[in-house]
């Protein structure tokens, strides 16, 4: 009888959860940097970077994350790069995250009232100065709540990387379910793990949203 | 030696691709219709605080929105049989899609319902309309129209998300891709073409839903 104790299951799942957390943080930080570049391309005066950024966003929002991961995983080996599941997962999630964050942040910049642009232009500020001193500080305030809200999607997105063999919480769960023949318990615990990671973020984003709406009412 | 791309090798299996596409669309359609139904029920329970359903839906929404779809699918397909609740891969996939989309549409539609001006409900009450009548004729159509773009986006996201149903061997489009690349050993070409198919589907589904919204809900559903 190959009985695996509950404590061993939980210890393994916690280890998997650490990888999920690590991957989420990596994708969120790198995706945030790439998303910022996309944002500037998307609101540039020149139409070429605008179109390119828009196409990038449409492609990544219009195809499954799983397919993006497969293409990176198998495409990399075609051009002679040995792509490990970790690299493919981090790169795929970073690209996915950047597309969504770029689009969310563009919405925030565009929701800054037109009058702010006009007022700063009438003070003879250059485009860069307008951005730096007037538009971005206000857009940032609006952006915090939806950005925290989106981080939940990043954490949940990491589950898909288990399919290309990256051993995080979901993959650990699958392996444990096969080893213990207790899928109900194991996947229940896995779900609980994701909930513990995601719920605080969801709740915090709601609090932030309420705060912004509250201060706007005055 | 450089790699020779061979995209034609994928189209030798075009009937497999076609069947997979049809199954993905079917899964999405059933999920979308039933999910929207659950969403409307959940939204009205939450917005009008119909006890005890408002609490039940609140817990349901939080549980589903804070866990990955893949885990919901695994839980239903692998976990539920130990409670004596055995589903085949299609039943599990459809159930998972419905449950997942239902949670998101509950939140989306609720926002629409809560944006109904009080005066409209009072006006309807003064016409002696019953509560179900008010909901059916006064509250729901403009609420749906207001949030229709968000509903369309969510349905597209769910359609793309069904690609993980291949993991429980539901033979949808991604399963077809896995099958084809295991036969022709052209993994990159196969996944590339299937990704293009998904992209076309996403654009088409969004167009179709937007048009349907305009038809059924009027000009406000933009």
UniProtKB/TrEMBL annotation, chain A:
UniProt-listed InterPro entries: AA_ABC_transptr_permease_3TM, ArtM/GltK/GlnP/TcyL/YhdX-like, MetI-like, MetI-like_sf
Keywords: Cell membrane, Membrane, Transmembrane, Transmembrane helix, Transport
Annotated GO MF terms: transmembrane transporter activity
PROSITE patterns: ABC_TM1
One GO term describing the cellular component: ATP-binding cassette (ABC) transporter complex
Transmembrane segments: 16-41, 62-80, 139-164, 184-204
ABC transmembrane type-1 domain residues: 17-205
One Pfam family here: BPD_transp_1
Localization annotation: Cell inner membrane; Cell membrane
Annotated GO biological process: amino acid transport
Principal cellular location given in the protein's record: membrane
Record membrane topology: Multi-pass membrane protein
Similarity comment text for this entry: Belongs to the binding-protein-dependent transport system permease family. HisMQ subfamily.
Protein name: Polar amino acid transport system permease protein
Provenance organism: Rhodocyclus tenuis
Upper lineage: Bacteria, Pseudomonadati, Pseudomonadota, Betaproteobacteria, Rhodocyclales
UniProtKB/TrEMBL annotation, chain B:
GO biological process: one example: amino acid transport
Membrane topology: Multi-pass membrane protein
UniProt keyword annotation of Transferase present: no
Main location (coarse class): membrane
Membrane-spanning parts: 20-44, 56-78, 90-109, 190-209
Record localization: Cell inner membrane; Cell membrane
One Pfam family here: BPD_transp_1
Keywords annotated in UniProt: Cell membrane, Membrane, Transmembrane, Transmembrane helix, Transport
Any Gene Ontology CC annotation: ATP-binding cassette (ABC) transporter complex
Positions of the ABC transmembrane type-1 domain: 21-209
UniProt GO MF annotations: transmembrane transporter activity
Keyword Chaperone: no
Domain of life: Bacteria
NCBIfam families in alphabetical order: HEQRo_perm_3TM (TIGR01726)
PANTHER family cross-referenced by the UniProt entry: ABC TRANSPORTER PERMEASE PROTEIN, MEMBRANE COMPONENT OF AMINO ACID ABC TRANSPORTER
Protein family membership: Belongs to the binding-protein-dependent transport system permease family. HisMQ subfamily.
Protein name listed in UniProt: His/Glu/Gln/Arg/opine family amino acid ABC transporter permease subunit
